[in-house]
């Protein structure tokens, strides 16, 4: 998968979670301004990132959600549970799309309609809510502008309106290709224009490599909405011989269309830098064609017409035209001009006379009508242009500086051309002004600098950047004039100096940011310009991986109206750079500032492909920069590492046996000694390894806990209960595998507490409790275990009811029930197929849940205790191993075999004389610390041949915890405590309940570890 | 798909980008060779560019008015 997309997916999930958590927090405290901001920020950042990919439905939904949040921020609408439901649904849908993106790298075909529905729903809600509340305020307005800007820049939604286009356009100029358009198309365009429709002139010059990108410019142009006609020509003259590469695009396409400007822009959104859209004045379409006639004939007629036009004698003019038509050759230039004049007489309004005059001139001269001369009245008055001295100064530059300056100017020109909201214009002018100013300053171009400053100040006064744009275009033209580039420099040198210019740019961006803070509008314009420049720089350098970071930094800054994030990002960019290689001598010698010289070399290295092509170099960069603080590694490789270390521990444990054999079987005690010494070293290292991998595999409990706010909210709303969820100790860490396994059981238990434990508000009030119940999830570490407690203050488990139910279901007999203590009865809820609730809801009560919970916990070597008081609530306490990697077991001997018992269940080892064992109701029991404890003969329970190892008649008894009570296990003998890597049993063996798993011992033998909970009494 | 006859190349209904190279090879340096574009409905820009470069005589124009306009530069000369 494309790494950028990969990164987006990860970040999108984080952002969605942030948003969802924020929304839940808002439900309890709807007036929390920071909370609203947090959710808004998440949505906003997400929307920005979606613009980088082809995921329009996602962008639209997030955008709609963002607008609602914006309205909430502005206090136009109020947040309530319904709104939160709606927004959560929207973010859930986006989450589903993120999953789709991960699976297929694109959205499913239904995404479009789902997205449209969803965003329509959101927008509808907002409209309705706004209708109730009062109208918008300035704050929201300001924000919309930021958005407008951004949309233009990410090109995710190009909806710049015509007004902006015209604002952006430089002084209106001749469109030389209009005469290439077939005459009938020009006529059609004129008619459309006269009828009041907008006619767009499209000039498309595809980049030379476009065919290699699979583009078909002609095909694209033929799709233009409202296309009236087209024309084509070669972009430049070339020598046509067999050597010519026909796959280098060398063509220009022109189109005339009546479609909406926005639609046309949208069509060309991927090639917007190669397309120029213009709105010619309607008379510009009037161009005669054909061969010019002998002008002696025309002289007379022209004079006659002149006088008619002067006298505004239309009838006379029409008569002259028809006379003239008979004289001139059909289809000649003059004949055409005459036809156009008739057309104008019949169609044009106020401008008629001026146009006729112009056409008459054209008819007479055989030259295209000089429409521009008529347009002085509509030209913007900004026309401070680059004068000769300036051009001379530019031309004096050597090719290297020229290249550099041209790059900077080109970028700034591009920024200037982007559509922008009127209010932000000043910010952009100031920012671009500063960029160019600094660059000129560095090149010591005093004349140019003075001119530029004048241009900028004029633009500021007029709040119109047209003058700047014209100036920049002229400069760029002067810089890139082909003639002056005849002595092309070595390609590498150009590359190098480009980097230098890039650095200059980055550095300048930094300076721009560090200027004193102007008002907000200017500031936003400034930030956006910086963003565009840096985006271009990164794209130029092929560092797409940094784009998201940049985006996030700028987004954050825009929202917080600060520059710290972006500055940090720029600083980080600099950090990543390396010491210069020999090639960068030039950049150092040009006497640039310290920063840029250092930066230059790095960028040179990066974009010359070295860093990209050489992963080691890239890695080195990271190290030297001290960047990589965290490393995302695939889970599988960490698991594999953990497994290998486990194997290593077992292999290591074989060494003492080897030493023993060396001493006893082979009679080389010296070798045995050496082996033992070596074993100690290996032992220490493996222990360290084990500790390290364990820490790597530890995850915070919050991984499980974080899903509960949403779950609890949804369930309690469904059940009509009021619940306050309290999370404690989320930072407690446990082994990844424990955390993973625990997620489902936790959900079961939480559902149970909500469904069965907590009462409805009425019930609670009737019982004299607070209306809102409390569900507390608490995690903490205790010794080698992680304890998780689920505590509710609900009605508690009623042992009498539980017993009745169990008898009714045939789980226990009435006698058993009578003999049970209240505490034991509570554990009946963990019996398979036990359900106390008659009504089966979709939440719980299906009788699958709690027994699965218990078996899961026991399988991973944990234990579970319940404490419940009727009317007061229930606490379920789970004790889980910190790590599943290493288990502590106690070795016991049974019929000459060795078994393990999980150490955390063992309470005590003891020996009983026969007289201490009492039989009550056919069960052997004994009194242990004044408690009656049942006795279980393990040999019998495990169908092993009966017998005893001891001949003094005493029994070895292991007192272990089970179901909140104790039982005594009669074994042959105890052995030592052992650390083992326990593996669960697989295949058919996994169904045997009495074993928790197996472990490999140092001598290569296998030990089975007992599952005390699985033993039948 | 382009069918090359003795000195006329007959353009097929679709002329995708791959055909540009062979058409160019066939046209270059042979000013007498001609084009019959009457069947052509879909011409890739690269093919159009080859025609603009070599300027062969068009003995039959395409049906589509827009394609005709795209090729109009060849007729005026």
Question: Layout of SSEs?
Answer:
The complex is a heterodimer of chains A (1017) and B (77).
Chain A: H1 3-28, H2 33-50, H3 56-73, H4 81-104, H5 111-132, H6 138-154, H7 162-168, H8 183-194, E1 200-204, H9 217-222, E2 227-234, E3 251-257, H10 261-267, E4 275-278, H11 295-310, H12 314-327, H13 333-347, H14 352-365, H15 388-396, H16 399-417, H17 425-442, H18 446-462, H19 466-480, H20 491-514, H21 520-540, H22 547-560, H23 564-575, H24 585-589, H25 594-607, H26 610-613, H27 615-625, H28 635-664, H29 669-696, E5 698-700, H30 702-705, H31 708-719, E6 723-728, E7 733-735, H32 736-757, H33 761-766, E8 773-782, E9 785-792, H34 799-808, H35 814-819, H36 822-826, H37 849-859, E10 863-869, E11 873-881, E12 887-894, E13 897-902, E14 906-912, E15 917-920, E16 923-928, E17 931-937, H38 938-941, E18 955-962, E19 965-971, E20 973-980, E21 982-983, E22 995-1000, E23 1006-1010
Parallel strand pairs in A: 6-8, 13-23, 17-19
Antiparallel strand pairs in A: 1-3, 1-4, 2-3, 5-7, 8-9, 9-11, 10-11, 12-13, 12-20, 14-18, 15-16, 16-17, 18-19, 21-22, 22-23
Helix pairs in contact in A: 1-2, 1-4, 2-3, 2-22, 3-4, 3-5, 4-5, 6-21, 11-12, 11-14, 12-13, 13-14, 15-19, 16-17, 16-19, 16-20, 17-18, 17-20, 17-21, 18-19, 20-21, 20-25, 21-22, 22-23, 28-29, 31-32, 32-37
Chain B: E1 2-4, E2 8-11, E3 14-15, H1 19-27, E4 34-36, E5 42-43, H2 45-54, E6 57-60, H3 65-70, H4 72-76
Parallel strand pairs in B: 2-4, 3-5, 4-6
Antiparallel strand pairs in B: 1-2
Structural summary, described in words:
The complex is a heterodimer of chains A (1017) and B (77). Chain A is α+β, with helices and mostly antiparallel strands and 1017 residues long. Chain A folds into seven domains: 134 residues, Four Helix Bundle (Hemerythrin (Met), subunit A) (Up-down Bundle), CATH 1.20.120; 114 residues, 2-Layer Sandwich (Alpha-Beta Plaits), CATH 3.30.70; 83 residues, no CATH class; 238 residues, no CATH class; 62 residues; 144 residues, Heat Shock Protein 90, CATH 3.30.565.10; 128 residues, CheA-289, Domain 4 (OB fold (Dihydrolipoamide Acetyltransferase, E2P)), CATH 2.40.50. In chain A, 53% of the residues lie in helices and 14% in strands. Chain A contains 38 helices and 23 strands. Chain A has a six-stranded mixed β-sheet, with no helix packed on it. Chain A has a six-stranded mixed β-sheet with strand order 14-18-19-17-16-15. A five-stranded mixed β-sheet of chain A has the order 6-8-9-11-10, with helices on one face. In chain A, strand 15 and strand 16 form a beta hairpin. In chain A, helix 4 runs antiparallel to helix 5. The longest helix of chain A is centred in the middle third of the chain and has 30 residues. Chain B has 77 residues and is α/β, with parallel strands linked by helices. A four-stranded mixed β-sheet of chain B has the order 1-2-4-6, with helices on one face. At the A-B interface, helix 9 and strand 2 of A face helix 1, strand 5, helix 2 and helix 3 of B.
């Amino acid at each position: 998968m494309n790494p950028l997309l990969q990164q987006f997916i990860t970040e999108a999930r984080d952002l969605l979670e942030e948003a969802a958590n924020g929304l839940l927090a808002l439900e309890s405290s709807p007036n929390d301004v920071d909370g609203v901001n947090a959710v808004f920020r998440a949505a906003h950042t997400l929307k920005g990132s979606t613009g980088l990919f082809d995921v329009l439905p996602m962008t639209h939904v997030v955008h709609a959600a963002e607008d609602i949040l914006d309205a909430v921020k502005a206090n136009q609408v109020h947040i309530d549970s319904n709104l939160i439901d709606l927004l959560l649904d929207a973010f859930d849908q986006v989450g589903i799309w993120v999953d789709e993106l991960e699976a297929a790298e694109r959205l499913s075909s239904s995404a479009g309609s789902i997205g449209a529905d969803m965003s329509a729903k959101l927008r509808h809600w907002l409209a309705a809510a706004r209708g109730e509340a009062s109208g918008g305020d300035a704050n929201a307005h300001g924000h919309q502008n930021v958005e407008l800007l951004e949309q233009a820049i990410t090109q995710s939604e190009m909806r710049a309106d015509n007004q902006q286009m015209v604002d952006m356009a430089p002084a209106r100029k001749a469109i030389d290709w209009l005469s290439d358009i077939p005459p009938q198309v020009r006529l059609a365009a004129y008619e459309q224009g006269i009828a009041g429709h907008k006619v767009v002139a499209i000039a498309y010059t595809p980049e030379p490599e476009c065919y290699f990108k699979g583009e078909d410019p002609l095909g694209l142009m033929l799709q233009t909405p409202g296309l009236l006609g087209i024309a084509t020509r070669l972009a430049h003259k070339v020598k046509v011989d067999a050597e010519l590469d026909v796959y280098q695009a060398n063509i220009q396409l022109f189109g005339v269309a009546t479609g909406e400007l926005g639609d046309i822009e949208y069509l060309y959104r991927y090639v917007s830098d190669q397309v120029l859209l213009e709105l010619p004045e309607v008379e510009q379409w009037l161009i005669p064609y054909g061969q010019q006639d002998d002008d002696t004939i025309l002289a007379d007629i022209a004079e006659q017409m002149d006088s008619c036009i002067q006298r505004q004698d239309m009838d006379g003019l029409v008569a002259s035209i028809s006379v003239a038509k008979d004289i001139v050759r059909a289809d000649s230039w003059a004949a055409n001009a005459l036809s156009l004049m008739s057309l104008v007489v019949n169609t044009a309004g106020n401008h008629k006379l001026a146009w006729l005059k112009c056409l008459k001139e054209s008819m007479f001269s055989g030259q295209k009508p000089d429409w521009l001369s008529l347009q002085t009245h509509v030209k913007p008055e900004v026309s401070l242009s680059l004068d000769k001295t300036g051009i001379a100064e530019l031309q004096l530059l050597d090719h290297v500086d020229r290249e550099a300056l041209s790059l900077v100017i080109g970028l700034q020109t591009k920024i200037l051309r982007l559509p922008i909201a009127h209010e932000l214009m000043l910010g952009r002018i100031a920012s671009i002004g500063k960029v160019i100013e600094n660059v000129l300053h560095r090149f010591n171009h005093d004349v140019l600098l003075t001119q530029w400053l004048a241009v900028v100040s004029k633009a500021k006064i007029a709040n119109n950047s047209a003058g700047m744009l014209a100036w920049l275009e002229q400069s760029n033209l002067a810089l890139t004039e082909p003639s002056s580039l005849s002595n092309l420099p070595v390609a590498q040198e150009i590359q190098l100096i480009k980097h230098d210019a890039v650095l200059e740019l980055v550095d300048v961006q930094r300076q721009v940011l560090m200027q004193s803070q102007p008002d907000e509008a200017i500031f936003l314009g400034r930030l956006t310009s910086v963003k565009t420049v840096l985006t271009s720089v990164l794209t130029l350098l092929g560092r797409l991986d940094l784009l998201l970071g940049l985006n996030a930094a700028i987004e954050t800054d825009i929202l917080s109206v600060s520059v710290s994030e972006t500055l940090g990002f720029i600083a980080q960019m600099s950090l990543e750079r390396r010491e210069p290689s020999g090639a960068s001598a030039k950049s150092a010698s040009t006497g640039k500032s310290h920063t840029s010289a250092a930066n230059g070399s790095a960028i040179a290295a990066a974009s010359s492909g070295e860093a990209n092509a050489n992963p080691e170099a890239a890695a080195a960069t990271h190290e030297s920069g001290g960047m990589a603080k965290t490393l995302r590694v695939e889970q599988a490789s960490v698991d594999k590492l953990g497994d290998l270390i486990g194997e290593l521990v077992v292999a290591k444990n074989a060494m003492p046996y080897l030493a023993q054999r060396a001493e006893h079987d082979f009679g080389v005690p010296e070798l045995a000694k050496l082996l033992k010494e070596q074993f100690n070293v290996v032992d220490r290292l493996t222990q360290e390894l084990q500790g390290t991998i364990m820490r790597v595999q530890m995850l915070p409990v919050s991984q499980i806990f974080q899903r509960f706010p949403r779950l609890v909210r949804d369930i309690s709303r469904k059940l009509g209960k009021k619940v306050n969820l309290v999370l404690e100790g989320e930072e407690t860490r446990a082994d990844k595998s424990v955390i993973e396994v625990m997620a489902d059981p936790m959900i079961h238990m939480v559902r149970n507490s909500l469904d069965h434990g907590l009462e409805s508000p009425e019930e609670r009030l009737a019982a004299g409790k607070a209306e809102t119940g409390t569900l507390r999830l608490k995690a903490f570490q205790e010794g080698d275990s992680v304890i998780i407690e689920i505590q509710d203050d609900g009605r508690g488990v009623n042992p009498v009811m539980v017993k009745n139910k169990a008898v009714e279901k045939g789980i226990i007999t009435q006698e058993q029930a009578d003999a049970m203590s209240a505490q034991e009865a509570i554990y009946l809820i963990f019996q398979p197929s036990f359900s106390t609730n008659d009504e089966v809801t979709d939440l719980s009560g299906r009788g699958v849940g709690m027994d699965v919970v218990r078996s899961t916990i026991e399988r991973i070597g944990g234990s579970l205790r319940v404490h419940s008081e009727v009317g007061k609530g229930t606490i379920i306490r789970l004790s889980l191993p910190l790590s599943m990697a290493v288990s502590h077991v106690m070795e016991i001997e049974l019929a000459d075999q060795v078994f393990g018992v999980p150490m955390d269940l063992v309470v005590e080892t003891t020996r009983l004389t026969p007289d201490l064992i009492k039989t009550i109701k056919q069960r052997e029991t004994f009194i242990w610390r004044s408690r009656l404890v049942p006795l279980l003969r393990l040999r019998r329970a495990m169908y092993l041949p009966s017998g005893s190892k001891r001949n003094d008649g005493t029994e070895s008894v292991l007192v272990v915890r089970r179901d909140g009570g104790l039982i005594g296990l009669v074994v042959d003998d105890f052995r030592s405590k052992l650390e083992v890597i326990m593996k669960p049993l697989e295949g058919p063996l996994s169904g045997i309940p009495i074993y928790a798993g197996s472990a490999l011992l140092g001598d290569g033998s296998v030990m089975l570890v007992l599952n005390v909970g699985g033993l039948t009494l | 798909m382009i069918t090359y006859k003795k000195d006329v190349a007959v353009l097929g209904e679709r002329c995708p980008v791959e055909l540009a190279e062979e058409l160019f090879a066939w046209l270059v340096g042979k000013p007498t060779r001609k084009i019959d574009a009457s069947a052509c409905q879909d011409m890739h820009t690269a093919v159009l560019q080859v025609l603009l470069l070599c300027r062969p005589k068009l003995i039959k124009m395409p049906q589509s008015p827009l394609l005709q306009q795209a090729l109009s530069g060849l007729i005026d000369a």
